[in-house]
């Protein structure tokens, strides 16, 4: 029966059998096993000495306000955090790493200060994520620039734009006179684009 | 190497669209060369006189599967970034049955409809109009079937996850099935040729 | 040789292998498989957008900002061009209706229209057609795609019993 098959098919079958056996032998082995992977000193140095990618509060506010992106905004402030930036998800460093989201996702990280954000930043970089940014100045910068900015600090030509951002996120622009007053923020409901599979 | 290129943003979205055109051209060219733009040849699969459809489909599947497996095993491509829709069992099986009926009636599947149309087949053009109407009908009734559409969802639907075997083992099994399929196809074809010659 | 009766078409295993390489290139470049029917639904989604019609499904189907930046639309335009070129080089461009001898011209076209309608509906229900779901998903070893592929063959072998006459 086999002898009746055309020569082409015989060749095809031969190639397939050898590749099939090879794949059976390789089985489930991965090129990079996360438990055995290691960075050399020079690779580690490379990661650490590259300038940290940051996003300013104003840039982030613009980005969020568009409501047309898919992103992950990670809040590392911990349990006793008060205010959270709209659409952010509260995580610990460990709990976020465990999500194992795809490495091409956009990730913004912020914390009370920049330290925790920076820790997660590096942990993500060595795992191959390449679209990670930390919020420059942490949540304090967000409060100072978006929620209750001082009018005097804003350049005149920027004022309109900044007013819009502040209003959008439910804050208010302060004058020198009511500087010390703390304002309560209106909660904002923001939409975030869902991640989609590309349709076939 | 960071593959797939577009998800890793190695190439711009404009260049990605350019490659879409090239890939489409190559795909259409080869389908036509293989005779898959001809309804009679396609329908031979179901009258068991010409099993080209099966042979082409399975050779293609096996080629891609082997390619992806080895590229992934050697760390050249990250399969997690290749988008693939999740499994929705019942909608997919029902959809398959209806599509199969449509295939046998029209003589084309949606992709080969495009190929047939490009080569001047009027029946393919009719089938293409049908495809548009069919999609419109689906859009119109979507509200009623939305729950069904999202039912019986399975997220981790890779062979190795569902059957709890290694990736390489599932590749091996599919290769074995394909080889048996090819031999069977040749036997069926030679029998049908024998019967028509008598 | 198995292909004596179709000398003008290339060997199916060769065609399959080449098709596989193209699909592999698509996976490695774009990170997605090749589709066909999706181009129609995405075109509909963009037309609905243009006409200010809102529909839950079409909203779901909008993957790109515009018609011309939809990957699958461009790819399907490519399929059309590629098929045309191949047929042109082989001298196979001909305005004709492929049909069995026992069926009239107009009923063949009606049949193709009905078949197309069923496929258009089914492809949306199954999230892809023979190219996008069965071929691309099958190569990714997704069980749903294999179930879909098997169902296509079952559906077609059942239907052929009733339409066999029109193909003879």
List the helices and strands and how they pair.
The complex is a heterotrimer of chains A (200), B (198) and C (168).
Chain A: H1 7-26, H2 41-49, E1 54-55, H3 57-66, E2 72-75, E3 88-90, H4 93-99, E4 107-110, H5 115-126, E5 132-135, H6 138-147, H7 159-168
Parallel strand pairs in A: 1-5, 2-3, 2-4, 4-5
Chain B: H1 13-33, H2 39-43, H3 52-73, E1 87-88, H4 89-106, H5 110-118, H6 122-149, E2 153-154, H7 159-162, H8 167-197
Antiparallel strand pairs in B: 1-2
Helix pairs in contact in B: 1-5, 3-8, 5-6
Chain C: H1 12-30, H2 37-50, H3 56-61, H4 71-89, H5 105-125, H6 130-139, H7 143-167
Largest sheet of chain A: 5 strands, parallel
Look at the structure and name the CATH superfamily of the domain at 41-178 in chain A. Answer: Rhodanese-like domain
Gross morphology of chain A: elongated
Distance between the termini of chain B: 57 Å
CATH class of the domain at 41-178 in chain A: Alpha Beta
Strand order of the largest sheet of chain A: 1-5-4-2-3
Q: How do the strands of the widest beta sheet of chain B line up side by side?
A: 1-2
Key features of this structure:
heterotrimer, A: 200 residues, alpha/beta, Oxidized Rhodanese, domain 1, 7 helices, C: 168 residues, mainly alpha, 2 domains, globular, disordered N terminus
What does this 3D model show about the protein?
- Chain A contains seven helices and five strands, in the order H-H-E-H-E-E-H-E-H-E-H-H.
- By secondary structure, chain A is an alpha/beta fold.
- Chain A has a five-stranded parallel sheet with strand order 1-5-4-2-3.
- In chain A, strand 4, helix 5 (115-126) and strand 5 form a beta-alpha-beta unit.
- The two termini of chain A are 40 Å apart.
- Chain B is mainly α and 198 residues long.
- Helices cover 70% and strands 2% of the residues of chain B.
- In chain B, helix 3 runs antiparallel to helix 8 and helix 5 (110-118) packs antiparallel against helix 6.
- The N and C termini of chain B lie far apart (57 Å).
- By secondary structure, chain C is an all-alpha fold.
- Chain C folds into two domains: 1-94, no CATH class; 98-168.
- In chain C, 68% of the residues lie in helices and 0% in strands.
- Chain C is built from seven helices and no strands.
- In chain C, helix 2 crosses helix 4 and helix 6 (130-139) crosses helix 7 (143-167).
- Chains in contact: A-B, A-C, B-C.
- Chains B and C meet through helix 1, helix 2, helix 3, strand 1 and helix 4 of B and helix 1, helix 2, helix 3, helix 4 and helix 5 of C.
């Amino acid at each position: 029966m086999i002898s009746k098959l055309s020569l082409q098919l015989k060749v095809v079958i031969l190639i397939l059998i050898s590749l099939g056996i090879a794949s059976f032998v390789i089985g489930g082995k991965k090129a990079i096993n996360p438990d055995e992977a290691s960075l050399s000193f020079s690779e580690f140095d490379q990661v650490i000495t590259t300038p940290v990618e940051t996003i300013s509060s104003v840039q982030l506010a613009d980005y969020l306000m568009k409501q047309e992106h898919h992103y992950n905004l990670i809040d590392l402030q911990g349990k006793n955090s008060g205010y959270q930036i709209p659409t952010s998800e509260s995580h610990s460093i460990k709990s976020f790493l465990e999500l194992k989201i795809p490495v091409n996702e956009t990730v913004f990280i912020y914390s009370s200060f920049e330290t925790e954000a920076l820790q997660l930043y590096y942990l993500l970089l060595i795992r191959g994520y390449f679209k990670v940014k930390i919020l420059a100045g942490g949540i304090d910068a967000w409060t100072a620039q978006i929620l209750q900015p001082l009018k005097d600090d804003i350049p005149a030509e920027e004022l309109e734009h900044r007013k819009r951002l502040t209003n959008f996120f439910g804050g208010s622009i302060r004058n020198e006179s009511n500087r010390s007053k703390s304002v309560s923020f209106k909660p904002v409901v923001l939409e975030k684009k869902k991640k989609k599979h590309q349709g076939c | 190497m960071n593959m797939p290129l577009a998800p890793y943003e190695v190439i711009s979205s404009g260049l990605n669209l350019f490659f879409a055109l090239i890939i489409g051209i190559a795909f259409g060219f080869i389908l036509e060369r293989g005779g898959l733009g001809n309804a009679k040849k396609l329908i031979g699969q179901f009258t068991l006189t010409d099993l080209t459809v099966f042979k082409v489909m399975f050779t293609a599947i096996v080629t891609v599967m082997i390619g992806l497996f080895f590229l992934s095993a050697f760390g050249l491509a990250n399969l997690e970034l290749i988008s693939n829709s999740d499994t929705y069992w019942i909608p997919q099986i029902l959809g398959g049955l209806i599509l199969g009926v449509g295939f046998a009636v029209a003589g084309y599947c949606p992709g080969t409809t495009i190929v047939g149309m490009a080569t001047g087949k009027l029946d393919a053009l009719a089938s293409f109009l049908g495809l548009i109407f069919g999609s419109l009908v689906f859009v119109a009734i979507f509200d009623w079937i939305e729950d069904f559409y999202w039912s019986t969802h399975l997220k981790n639907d890779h062979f190795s996850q569902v059957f709890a075997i290694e990736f390489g083992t599932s590749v091996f099994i599919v290769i074995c099935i394909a080889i048996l399929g090819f031999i069977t196809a040749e036997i069926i074809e030679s029998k049908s040729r024998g019967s028509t010659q008598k | 040789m198995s292909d004596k009766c179709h000398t003008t078409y290339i060997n199916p295993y060769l065609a399959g292998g080449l098709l596989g390489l193209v699909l592999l290139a698509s996976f490695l470049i774009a990170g997605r498989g090749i589709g066909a029917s999706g181009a129609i639904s995405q075109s509909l989604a963009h037309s609905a957008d243009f006409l200010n019609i809102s529909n839950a499904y079409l909203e779901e189907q909008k993957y790109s900002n515009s018609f011309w930046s939809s990957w699958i639309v461009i790819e399907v335009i490519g399929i059309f061009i590629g098929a045309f070129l191949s047929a042109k080089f082989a001298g196979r461009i001909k305005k004709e209706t492929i049909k069995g001898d026992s069926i009239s011209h107009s009923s063949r076209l009606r049949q193709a229209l009905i078949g197309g309608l069923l496929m258009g509906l089914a492809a949306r229900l199954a999230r892809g057609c023979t190219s996008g779901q069965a071929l691309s998903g099958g190569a990714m070893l997704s069980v749903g795609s294999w179930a879909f592929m098997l169902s296509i063959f079952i559906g077609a072998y059942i239907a052929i019993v009733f339409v066999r006459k029109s193909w003879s």
